[in-house]
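hey
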């Protein structure tokens, strides 16, 4: 028992230092009738109550036992784990996906940044015009590929010089490269909006021009040409074709007004468009026309009857040594004299 319990116990069970010294002594009980109880001499007073000092060993044991219970109770009690909501997990996955998607788009947008503009500043004013100058030889070869826009090549520039005028309506990179042979390569990379290219040369040049949907226009140029367009039209005015030249479009029209040099081979082809070809009346050449399901018309004094294969083959002028080939699938071919 501790001290508090001992204080409320029966006095006979209490230890001497806890008994109440002020309580009266017990009187002996009389055993015979009429006999007076005999007085007893009172006991001397007990010394004052003193609380004994705690036993060091007992205190250390209690402290150690209490610490042991607290320590092992903390180790044994399992930690409660919160249960993550599935909805929260889906939100985290969606956030990571959008972050990766945004990073991929930013990489693509940075690759399409226009020269001279800093990433993150914002798009340049639209439309954006840019001019570049190149030093070339007397008779350069100019190679241009434009997947979304038009190409215009014309004369009027200084000798040994090419001027490129770029007109954009949106972000697009235009790469240029000068070859060791004096050739100039111009490429429009993955344009998402039209990019128009205007090229000024001195007079002579060999041209290799290609577009997807844009038109090709060549004015006053002398040289060999290879012009190709999928859906655009091709127009040549006051041009002089040399050696082996080809003008071809799938769905667009072809217009040619100019001259051809002797001993050359010149081919014009439009699958579904209209062809208007104008040559000098003095020109001499062998004519090979393949109209297929289309039509052929001319104002030249030649025989236009088709042979067994459906083609028209005849000579124009005297002693022809050049060849002109005109082809269509369902379009119309018109050969006129200038």
């Amino acid at each position: 028992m501790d001290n508090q319990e001992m204080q409320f116990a029966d006095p006979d069970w209490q230890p001497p230092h806890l008994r109440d010294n002020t309580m009266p002594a017990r009187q002996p009980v009389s055993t015979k009738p009429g006999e007076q109880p005999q007085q007893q001499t009172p006991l001397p007073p007990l010394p004052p109550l003193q609380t004994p000092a705690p036993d060091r060993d007992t205190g250390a044991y209690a402290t150690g036992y209490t610490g042991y219970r607290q320590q092992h109770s903390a180790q044994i009690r399992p930690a409660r784990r919160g249960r993550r909501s599935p909805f929260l997990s889906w939100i985290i996955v969606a956030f990571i996906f959008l972050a990766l998607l945004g990073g991929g788009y930013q990489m693509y947008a940075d690759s399409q940044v226009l020269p001279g503009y800093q990433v993150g500043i914002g798009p340049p004013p639209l439309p954006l015009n840019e001019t570049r100058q190149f030093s070339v030889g007397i008779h350069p070869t100019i190679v241009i590929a434009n997947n979304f826009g038009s190409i215009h090549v014309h004369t009027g520039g200084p000798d040994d010089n090419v001027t490129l005028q770029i007109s954009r309506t949106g972000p697009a990179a235009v790469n240029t490269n000068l070859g060791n042979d004096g050739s100039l390569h111009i490429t429009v990379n993955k344009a998402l909006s039209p990019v128009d290219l205007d090229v000024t040369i001195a007079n002579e040049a060999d041209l290799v021009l290609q577009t997807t949907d844009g038109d090709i226009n060549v004015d006053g140029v002398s040289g060999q040409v290879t012009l190709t367009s999928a859906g655009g039209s091709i127009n040549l005015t006051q041009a002089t074709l040399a050696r082996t030249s080809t003008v071809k479009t799938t769905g667009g029209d072809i217009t040619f007004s100019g001259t051809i040099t002797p001993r050359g081979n010149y081919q014009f082809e439009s699958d579904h468009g209209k062809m208007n070809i104008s040559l000098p009346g003095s020109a001499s050449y062998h004519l090979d026309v393949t109209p297929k399901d289309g039509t052929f018309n001319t104002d030249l004094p030649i025989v236009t009857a088709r042979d067994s294969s459906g083609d028209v083959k005849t000579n124009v002028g005297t002693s022809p040594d050049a060849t002109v080939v005109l082809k269509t699938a369902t379009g119309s071919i018109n050969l006129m004299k200038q």
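Residues 112-119 have pLDDT under 50 and may be disordered. Residues 133-162+173-337 form one domain.
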